[in-house]
Amino acid sequence: MKLKYIAALVIVALLGVFAYQTYWLVQLYHTMSERVDNDIQEAMRVADLKEVFLRLKSIEENEQPHGSMHINAGISKDGSITAKAVTRTQVTLDGDTYEQATGVVLRSTPQAVSDSVKSDENSFMHMLEEQISITELAQMIQQGLHLGVDRFEGTRYEKYDTLLTAGLIKLGLSGNHQLVCIKTDTVYKNTTIGYIPSSRARQYEHNWTDYGRYVLTIEPTTGLVLREMAGILTASGLIVLLLGLAFYFLISTILKQRTLDEMKTDFTNNITHELKTPIAVAYAANDSLLNFGSDEDVEKRKKYLNLCRIQLERLSGMVEQILSMSMERRRQFKLNIEKVDVTALLQPVIEQQQLKADKPVTITTHIDPEGLTVMADRSHLSNILNNLIDNAIKYSHDEARIEIDASPAAISITDHGIGIAADKLPHIYDKFYRVPTGDTHDVKGYGLGLFYVKTMVEKHGWNIYVDSKRGQGTTFTIHLL
Question: pTM to 2 decimals?
Answer without folding.
Answer: 0.51
